[in-house]
Amino acid sequence: MKRPVVVALNPSIDAEWRVDGVRWEEKNNVLSERRWAGGKGVNVARWLKHLGEDPQLILPLGGASGRELATLLRAEKIAATIIRLGQFPSSEGAGVGSSDHSTRVNVIVSTKAQGQLRFNPLGPLLSKREWQRTLASVRAALRKASCLILSGSLPRGVPVNAYAQIIRLARAAKVPTLLDCDGPALAAAVPAKPFLVKPNDHELAQWSAATSRSVGLRPGALAMSKVTGGWVLVSRGAKPALLVNVTQSIELTATPPKVKPHNTVGAGDSLLAAVAQQIIRHAAPKTWLRAGLATGSTATQLDAGFLPIGRI
After folding, report:
1. Which of 1, 142, 204, 209 is most buried by its number of CB atoms within 10 A?
2. Taking a C-beta distance cutoff of 8 angstroms, is the pair 208, 220 a contact?
3. What is this structure's pTM?
């Protein structure tokens, strides 16, 4: 049985601190703290499972935060292939890696009236051997993959073309790849020709400027699709999303359901999960877009890390 494979190279523990407000140069009292398994790839896997799929998550973990994240994934019954970093133990018992090997902890500061502040560490430092072990795990998982999803930032120590390397492995295995990243990692990965790229409008503008491509939403999306030969889905929050494929001369737009966002953390990840599911099911592209936007809007109504009750 084939299953979606999600690669999360830089997962995290997400920690939300709720405060009345933020006062600079003053003590700020944390009224409550909540922690959950986070990072873009983990979010995608969580939503895929909620939507009825059986995803396999591949991720490097290290240190006490890595052990905590592994425990949380087990509690959510998300199947995970773990590449252990540094002194991360292979069985129960003592052993804590150095800070260079520790899985990052992202901090979200939520206020009543000032919105959110988000602080994301760079992540652990992977050795060359640990990166090669990660690639070997991906290569093995591709044998039974219905699709491959690459989502999130790169940790330290892996090459900037890390996603490009994985996309080439997937193309050789004839597995479609969905890509969601930004910055130099995105610029390096696009020429490897993923099946679908999901930038938001800011990430697309960054890519266009960095690669001297056409600036603007539609020209930028078309330019990216021309490079990949595949699909580009530009998510834009409450604004109409754009799905294009130059090779097939397709341009689709759709507006998300009108909702008042309660939280935006993970909304794009839930969108990508729903799109991946529709691709696996061989649905029409307009269905990808409609399902993705509906699921993303649903995610904005929930606290970060939570799922709705019942199926969407």
Report:
1. 204
2. yes
3. 0.92
